Input
Amino acid sequence: MKKILVAVDLQNDFIDGALGTKEAQAIVENAAKKISEHNDLIYVTYDTHFEDYADTLEGKNLPVAHCIKGTKGWQLNDRIQQALTGKKYTKVEKVTFGSVDLPKLIKQDTNGEPFEIELIGLCTDICVVSNALLLKANFPQVNVSVDANCCAGVTPELHNAALKTMGSCQIKITE
Ligand SMILES: [Zn+2]
Output
């Protein structure tokens, strides 16, 4: 059974940059440890915007420029980058909350072999839940889980609400 780890948006802007929180800072070490110990397929998503962010629908609803491609805020947190050093992983840039490319890449890379998927990262109530539900929709026979200790939400309340929602959708929540 192949074990897939999806590390969602562990970028500076979501940790100690434009949209950083102390809860996000608090899970970095857990997430880095999880990545270090994972020796199978890893996908690393990057929230990716451009200079026209303010003109996008996301930008109109959330007028805080973040993850502009090429900036420090767009880069992975140093500790996460360090955990990935020497590992083979697939970088997945996405302009949306959930990545429509991610299920396609996973399908290609697993090539009919059985697999399970674990997600970690930021933010629980936006991009983690979006990707978890997209993966569940694409792979209804695959176990999808989320490690709550390696995720943080926009607020702790939203983090907990998203975990509950994912639990309702048969995504296993571990900690
Ligand atoms: Zn964004």
